[in-house]
Amino acid sequence: MKNNLKTYSGESLEGNFYAIGLNYKKADAQIRGHFSISDIAKEKILLQAKEEGIPSLTVISTCNRTELYGFAQHPYKLIKLLCEHTNGTVEEFEKVAYIYKNHDAVSHLFTVGTGLDSQILGDFEIISQLRNAFRESKKHDIINPFMERLANAVIQASKRIKNETGISSGATSVSFAAVQYIMARVPYISEKNILLFGTGKIGRNTCENLIKHTKNQHITLINRTKEKAEKVAGKFNLIVKDYADIQSEIAQADVLIVATGAQQPTISKELLYLKRPLLILDLSIPKNVSEDVMENELVTVVHMDHLSAVTDQTLDQRAGQLPLAKKIIAEVEKEFNQWADNRKFAPTIKALKSKLSEIKDGEIDNQRRKINGFNEEQAEIISERLIQKITTHFANHLKGEEGSAESIELIRRVFQLETA
């Protein structure tokens, strides 16, 4: 496997392309919480990376994964950035982490971006999160052509899989799994009082699924910023209460769904004055429900990690679509890798063509002085065609299996080429 992506399109890149991170497969919710990155921290990471000379970097932080994609001389540079701006340590990271390099990193991003690495197969919420992450990198001018092209390729693969396979059939996602769980365990759910605390993306998606599948007219929204809750409520004609009312609203609820983005628990036993059973679903990373709520015998707590066990007929159907989805990824990924590999030697071919043109100009000038009636126009045409044929032969050699970094270096030495 070719792993040298250091030069392309005339650009000299520092280091290799890496994907470093952790996800739900080896890191539980508590550890993922330690490495959760807020929007402010994301910006700080990008700014610091730019100051440190990292040419391109993108940061992903969701409930199920935290990942950095970027160029570096050594992956530790990216790991250090991550740990400096989260509550996680290098030692903790090393126990659950993965590190992919160059083509393997490219493959990993395709798998993540197309929903094949999601906790619930076919959960395509990740692609919009990836798109936003790359947009943020571009905003801070810390994305190079390689990663920009890669982002577009992953988005293209995701669109094709959605359109050409049934892997996204059914509304299975973390938010839908939460609603499935509630419907399976709470009888007469349409008559129960549901309190949704937090109206971020997962909160909004959960709200939509609740309305669609439970037919419940007793859903109350609370958010620290009331205006955000009112915006969501307006769309669905729901009740909004002030954050100051959360204790009394919990007391009246049968189901409490917590989907806030806080870094510390927002629900603790001190808020619970219960006279009836309360089911709490914590859809937050890090966990936003303190473990001490379990001291109340009326409380049942379910975290999002448990929801991945929720089965649905659509999951079996989706699994049957995996071969077709992987085939699409392989096609798009192959095109991208060909582009990336070809760009490695583009500066050399460009420099070779310039060198041959320089030799041609000198020789035509020499022959013009020596030969009376020298046909410069014909000589120019023949010379240009020869240069084109020679450079095409070299390009085909470098594109083929025999092409390598050694071949590029040999051409540069023989023709005394200077490339950027």
From TrEMBL:
GO terms for biological process: protoporphyrinogen IX biosynthetic process from glutamate. GO terms for molecular function: glutamyl-tRNA reductase activity; NADP binding. Its EC number is 1.2.1.70. InterPro entries: 4pyrrol_synth_GluRdtase, 4pyrrol_synth_GluRdtase_dimer, 4pyrrol_synth_GluRdtase_N, GluRdtase_CS, GluRdtase_dimer_dom_sf, GluRdtase_N_sf, NAD(P)-bd_dom_sf, Shikm_DH/Glu-tRNA_Rdtase. Keywords: NADP, Oxidoreductase, Porphyrin biosynthesis. It is an enzyme of class 1 (oxidoreductase). Catalyzes the NADPH-dependent reduction of glutamyl-tRNA(Glu) to glutamate 1-semialdehyde (GSA). This is Glutamyl-tRNA reductase. It comes from Aequorivita lipolytica. The lineage of its organism: Bacteria, Pseudomonadati, Bacteroidota, Flavobacteriia, Flavobacteriales. The gene is hemA.
